[in-house]
Amino acid sequence: MTWLSDLFETYEVNSERVGIKEKNRWGQEITLLPISHAYQNAQVEVTITPNGDLFSATVVPKDEAATLIPVTIDSAGRTSSPSPHGLHDGLQYVAGDYQEYGGKYKKENAHLMYLENLRAWCHSDYANARVKSILTYLEKGTLIKDLLDKQVLVAENNQLLAKWSADLGDKPPLFTVLVGDQFSTFIRFNVHELGSVDVPVWDDKQVMDDYVNYYTQKQIEEGEGLDYVTGKQMPLTENHPSKVRYGGDMAKLISGNDSTNFTYRGRFSDKNQVATIGYEVSQKAHNALKWLISRQGYTNDGRVFLVWSMEGVAIPTPEESTYDFFFDEEEDSILDHDTTAQKFAEVFRSALSGYQKKLAYESQIQLMILDSATKGRMGILYYQVLPQQLYFDRLENWHETCYWQHTGVWNKKNYQFFGAPSLKDIAETAYGSRGNEALIKNTIQQLYSCVVDGKDIPMNVVQSALRRVSNPVNREKWEWNKELSVACSVMNKHYKFKKGEKSVALDREITDRNYLFGRLLAVADVLEERALMKAGVKRNTNAKRYMNTFSMRPLSTWKIIQENLIPYQIRLKDTSHFYQKELDEIGSKIVVENNDYGDAPLNGKYLLGYYSQREALINYKNNTSDTEEK
After folding, report:
1. The predicted structure's pLDDT at residue 237
2. Using CB atoms within 10 A of its CB, is residue 495 exposed (0-12), middle (13-18) or buried (19+)?
3. Would you state the pLDDT for residue 3?
4. Residue 395 CB partners (closer than 8 Å, separation 6+)
5. What angle do CA 342, 344, 350 make, to 5 degrees?
6. What radius of gyration do the chain's Cα atoms show?
7. Which of 354, 340, 336, 331 minimizes the C-alpha distance to 419?
8. DSSP β-bridge partners for residue 262
9. pLDDT given at position 503
10. Which of 255, 516, 202 is nearest to 378 (CA)?
């Protein structure tokens, strides 16, 4: 249970953050939950006076609905069986007059169960004055009546309306935030004290601590056992938390609630023969995992990719592009379009060094991938712990070898960076951005191992990227240009073509047949593109239209492309001499130096030659006049 132990220790190391709200890198509010607590969306807020009288009642806006609530082992994962939460809860639990207004209990009287539990807390050694005020009010049994008087709930003929229909007029505020009917309304409570700055009950650290102490003591009184994670005697649990990845996630990492259908495979007769886990350990480990996922996890189609250190320091992750390392706004100065490859490499290494300085030398990096097999079961697909130095060495190696120039638009700004694309971009380049979601996330996982374990990119990914990029027809220009640069990163990494070099510039000394044929195609592409622009025509060039065939039969296809170039050379007049000179120079290398002018298929190196030659021609054209070309 290494992963469980590591998560438990992560929670302990970051215990000072428990219950404190913070924001993740995307600006979302997150919290490291106290044990025996969970988040729940509330629709109505009821405020009580210290004497236990109603002060106010309001509908909670959707953007303020998330509420930290005390829970029990059973209530945290409740389904159809009634199991009350510790304080804030649904209408059937908190309203004594629930049945008077049309409510029906499915099994036991949920309100009496709720009151019994709340009284037990208020009569314990860890009673809280604010909670006692709420109990005093609820014992009056008039909650729904009071909410009707405050026009928060709506009734007809003394019965709560299940749904609001358009013929009744404008929709009341409550019906704009409810998912179900009025009987499903979730109530959160607050206590208003005159002359003091109100801290909401659900954010009150003292209320949290009092409940944790009360519920922990209650567990101890019910008995202890051996926790297999810490090796200590403590209260055990068989019911482990769900909602690990997001609020509605019912898949559990640890579960043994099915005693039939070969669950134990004949090895055990009881689930406790496998392992027993302490309630506190389970709560802390799962809460740490939830916090880490919301703080820094990457999710694709339900599959979570997570990297963390126990110190709680944000760690760069394998799936990120080199550009993602400079996500923060203060780094915008190095992300402009004129940033050089050398500058980017220097800043990248500096950023990696900055992350490492925040960690102790002996720190370890935990890596986890998890996904759900069914709605109720989740599995850990990958788990590894690496020394931080080894992790950062492999990360740096990936970004320096899976290297190319990438341009695009982000937040309505042009960007350019040199380095590795994101793993998602590689997967979508190989299989399409609108491809099978399962295939995309499985490919990302394959590539994840390439980064972390130093493996080569799988051949199926290399070949798929080559095939797709060699067929630019029926795709937007910007989309194909992005895929081309991503594919060049893959080919550069796979063939170790420019190992150690931080340059994508054209190399006129390379005599590799594939590279040279790619250069030929680029010259033909730019020549025709210039002629079409001059004529005001917008369409794909013959070079792009024949690109797929060219990659499979370069010699025979080149003859067709070359013949089709003649009208465009005539249209460009004297300017065409510049391009013809390039074609002659490249052709002479193929024939004379390589003596290899066969029609065998090209490998991915031809994309590198195509990209570099095309960039050289475009940059030359942008920096010179037609007169200079002559």
Report:
1. 85
2. middle
3. 93
4. 316, 318, 352, 451
5. 105
6. 32
7. 340
8. none
9. 79
10. 255
Give residue 550's pLDDT.
Answer: 96
Residue 69: predicted pLDDT: 95
Site of tokens 């099915």: 258
Instruction: Look at residue 58 in the predicted model and tell me its pLDDT.
Output: 96
Residues ≥6 apart with Cβ < 8 Å to 503: 341
pLDDT on residue 330? 45
Given this model, what pLDDT does residue 350 score? Answer: 82
Closest residue by Cα to residue 403 from 319, 322, 507, 514: 322
User: What is 107-156 written as a DSSP string?
Assistant: SS-HHHHHHHHHHHHHTSTT--HHHHHHHHHHTT--HHHHHHHTTSS-EE
- Of 228, 237, 226, 225, which is closest to residue 280 (Cα–Cα)? 237
Burial class (CB in 10 A: 0-12, 13-18, 19+), 381: middle
Q: What residues are paired with 192 via a beta bridge?
A: none
User: Distance between CA atoms of 316 and 307, rounded to whole angstroms?
Assistant: 8
Distances, alpha carbon 241 to alpha carbons 244, 253, 378, in Å = 7, 8, 12
Q: What are the residue ranges in the chain where pLDDT is below 50? A: 328-335, 337, 592-593, 625-630
Residue type, 347: V
Q: How far is CA 598 from the centre of its chain?
A: 47
pLDDT, residue 324, reads 83
Around Cβ 164, how many Cβ atoms within 10 Å? 18
